[in-house]
Amino acid sequence: MEKKDPRYGAYVDILKEELLPAMGCTEPIAVAYAAALSRDTLGRRPERLDVNVSGNILKNVKSVVVPNTGHLRGTAAAAAAGVVAGRAEKELEVIASVTPEQQGEIRTYLDTCPVKVGLADSDQIFYIEVIAYAGEDSAKTVISGYHTNVVRKERNGQVIFQKEEGAEAKESPYDSKSLLTIEGILDFADTVDLDDVREVVQRQMDYNFAIAQEGLKGDYGANIGSVLLNHYGDDIKVKVKAYAAAGSDARMNGCELPVVIVSGSGNQGITASVPVITYAKEKGIPEDKMMRAVVLSDLITVHQKSGIGRLSAYCGAVSAGAGAGAAIAYLNGGGYEEIIHTVVNALAIVSGIVCDGAKASCAAKIAAAVDAGILGYEMYRDGQQFWGGDGIVSKGVENTIQNVGRLAREGMRETDKEIIQIMLG
């Protein structure tokens, strides 16, 4: 792909937009970000908070550990962390620099300041509203569509910032994701000047592999990564799954290392990159080839997720696992045929995994998704595949990706509501 091709610049921009550093699970971090912004708009520490969020935000914040809080969980804890220690200018690293003294303050704030958490009166899937009160003053921040999309700020009922009409429904600052195709992504991965993407992709590789290593060394959640290595041996295919799972083990359970996200999710960022890095390191594949494979995996993940949406009842690890499988095919010299069949086969295997929020079991789902990606590739190598007309599979990889997007965004809408109701008890 030549640099003058409109897709080239668009793909570079997509990577720069998507590969953002984040401390902890991105939904509680977005709550903390909104709370820090409301505090700043108010001008002093709030005496009470109202935090109203969409069901999908509540689902993804309820059970996950908020980093740098001393293992506190949930929406109120995330908001309190943002108020006490948040640095709003850091966006998704808003609570990356919490001191031990501030951790104690967060607990005290939760004990003494009323934090009311409720479901927002909004039809947006991604919606966060934090209203801060002190004396007669109030301040409101609204984030909608995606994690850093601040659409409105108010002080004492007066609007001081308002994004353009329709901004609340956007899931990305860019509209260029429609240019993504598997064929175009492969062409780009083969030919991109790595200096154009090296900074963001290298950061992803460094951050996400580091948290995977930490997940295997520490005691996090259900320790899925360690379980895999302890009981299934150290075959390369086991290691690929174990390292990816271990990254999620750590991230979901309070590890204070940052990750680089994909499609708004650290788990997806880990799944799209760590299996590829692990495989390349085990095989002694050169760094440049490894980076091109990670680029391929990232963009295939984003391509699938652009039809699904940031949040849904469909587990995003499935998309990233298919991307990782395609990248492993690429590392083995595979071209377009190997990649498209790997993606279709993987989607046919694990597209039934539901998202029931961020928590320890995400690591096990990641392992299953990566396993499906590898199996999808090995099926093709043995001359096996799932055919158009087999369930949600249609002839042509782009048609199958569209089918999955339709299934996740439209077909699973009621499933999402039921999952949320179950989690609310």
Q: What does this protein look like?
A:
By secondary structure, the protein is of the alpha+beta class. It has two domains: 26-169, 2-Layer Sandwich (60s Ribosomal Protein L30, Chain: A); 180-424, 2-methylcitrate dehydratase PrpD, CATH 1.10.4100. The chain is 55% helix and 10% strand. The protein is built from 16 helices and eight strands. It has helices at residues 6-18, 26-42, 55-61, 75-85, 100-112, 182-191, 198-217, 224-232, 236-252, 266-283, 287-308, 316-331, 336-350, 362-381, 397-411, 413-424; strands at 21-22, 48-53, 115-119, 127-134, 137-144, 150-155, 158-162, 259-260. The strands form two sheets. A six-stranded mixed beta sheet has the order 3-2-4-5-6-7. Strands 1-8 form a two-stranded antiparallel sheet. Strand 6 (150-155) and strand 7 form a beta hairpin. Helix 10 (266-283) packs parallel to helix 12. The longest helix is centred in the C-terminal third of the chain and has 22 residues, at 287-308. The radius of gyration is 21 Å and the shape is globular. It starts with 5 loop residues before the first helix and ends with a helix.
Characteristic key phrases:
single chain; 425 residues; alpha+beta; 60s Ribosomal Protein L30, Chain: A; 2 domains; 16 helices; 55% helix
